[in-house]
Here is the input.
Amino acid sequence: MSFDRLAPHYRWIEALFAGERLQRCRTALLDAISPPRNVLIYGEGNGRFLVELLRRFPHTQTTVVDSSGTMIDLARMRLKREGLADAKVQFIQADALVWQPQTSSFDLIVTCFFLDCFREDQLQQLIPVIAGGATSDAQWLVADFQIASSGLRRWRSRMIVGLLYVFFRFATRLPGWRLIDPAPCLRAAGFTCEQQTEHDHGMLYSSWWAR
Ligand SMILES: C[S@@+](CC[C@H](N)C(=O)[O-])C[C@H]1O[C@@H](n2cnc3c(N)ncnc32)[C@H](O)[C@@H]1O
Here is the structure.
């Protein structure tokens, strides 16, 4: 699985098919959380969330783990363009299924459109590992797709999410092939959902979890 080939096209594809909707979903709860000191972002991609995080919390220390070197290069370039080259950000190119965070170190975990990359068995392995890096008072921001609850919205989201999986599996060899709700694993790791908002007719959600 690699996002390297897709990375240079990710931004225009997002702009064409989703406009600003994904970005609104990524950043929807940034104003709700307590200011973090040490942030761990998984699968940040090309850096759009990271820029907004650093604008709001310029003194935060941030670690970004992404398996795509090209995505990391794009995120670094974005920081430079936005005048944030001096921000305290460490980029780590690694497979999240292998890399282990330092125990009880991060007070904010962020996963935007990342947990949907994995199969259920992988998520059951991954979420406890990520949670092991979280402090006892940590927060966790999740932004992702979901299947809307009912009616036409449900059919619409099923169709779009299904097409997205076909596309991403072809373009990146993504292991996941259907949406898995991460909520049970987050609860099992000691997190409680503080707030959740829906976007785009219920097909996107942002949730803020805390210990
Ligand atoms: C669908 S993109 C989401 C990017 C961005 N967070 C967003 O909101 O659009 C998934 C990101 O996770 C990274 N990724 C996927 N699987 C990964 C893994 N096993 N370990 C680390 N990063 C991974 C990809 O390289 C990519 O940057």
Notes: The longest strand covers residues 134-145. Residues 7-210 form a domain with the Rossmann fold fold (CATH 3.40.50.150).
